[in-house]
Specification:
CATH class: Alpha Beta
Number of helices: 8
Number of strands: 11
Shape: globular
Structural class: alpha+beta
CATH topology: Phosphatase 2c, domain 1
Distance between the termini: 18 Å
CATH superfamily: PPM-type phosphatase domain
Number of domains: 1
Order of helices and strands: HEEEHHEEEEEHHEEHHHE
Largest sheet: 6 strands, antiparallel
Strand content: 25-35%
CATH architecture: 4-Layer Sandwich
Length: 251
């Protein structure tokens, strides 16, 4: 057998674990997560809105996305399947908010992976993030759709200024708040040993990337890594809901 040909077609098998915690300051948990290793779908959402509206928006998003992507037509390109699922989820949240005034303006962030063999689609709306740990180095794969991060990318604000800004909670894209929303979609190839982390900003607001990298690099089962990350974020303040979903690529 030609070794190079075998490597090009070798399958990558994924395992996953997740943990969500309301933190120390919030009365409830408006984050939601869902995944299906069988169908290669992994999702984290961070809801927003008055009363229980944020919890409803994030749960609706996860349910709709998981249903659409798990039952997708395998003949359809992955990017098209993701866009169709996001459109359906957006419509479900927006139409429900229009029917119920108590839910008016509700929405949610979204970050997810859709995996097929080695091929991985990373997609996001808002400021929930996807990271990848590869060979001990941590890389943020998504771009935050937030006012301060867009200012940083345009050179109008420094990163330290962004961290101190009173506007740092303002996101510029959300699922369900408008008739149409445009996701970012990134296509990458997974390698055995890659560790992907999907998380809400309740984790990344409390922990610097250097600490996240150190915690993820520990030689532990991924369910233990989830616990250590959430515990560290709570120890650092736990000002928001904290959700962490880890997906490990293996042979």
């Amino acid at each position: 057998m030609d070794g190079r040909s075998f490597l090009a077609t070798a399958l990558v098998h994924f395992t996953a674990a997740a943990l969500s915690d309301r933190g120390h300051k919030r009365p409830g948990n408006e984050d939601a997560l869902g995944f299906s290793v069988e169908h290669g779908v992994y999702l984290v959402c961070d809801g927003m809105g008055g009363a229980a509206a944020g919890e409803i928006a994030s749960s609706l998003a996860v349910d709709e996305m998981l249903c659409m992507l798990s039952g997708r037509d395998r003949a359809i390109p992955l990017s098209q399947a993701v866009k169709e699922a996001i459109f359906t989820a957006n419509e479900a949240i927006f139409s429900r908010s229009q029917r119920n005034k108590k839910l008016s303006g509700m929405g949610t962030t979204l970050v997810g992976l859709l995996v097929e063999d080695r091929h991985v689609l990373v997609f996001n709306i808002g400021d929930s993030r996807c990271y990848r740990l590869r060979n001990g180095g941590l890389e943020q794969l998504t771009l935050d759709h937030s006012l301060v991060d867009e200012q940083v990318r345009m050179g109008r604000m420094t990163r330290p200024e962004a961290l101190r800004s009173p506007l740092r909670n303002i996101i510029t894209r959300a699922l369900g708040t408008q008739v149409h929303v445009e996701p970012d979609i990134f296509e990458i190839e997974a390698e055995p040993g890659d560790l992907f982390m999907l998380c809400s900003d309740g984790l990344t607001r409390e922990l610097p990337d250097s600490e996240i990298e150190s915690l993820l690099a520990a030689d532990l089962p991924i369910e233990d890594l989830c616990g250590h990350l959430v515990n560290a974020a709570n120890k650092a303040g736990g000002h928001d809901n904290i959700t962490c979903l880890l997906v490990r690529a293996g042979e």
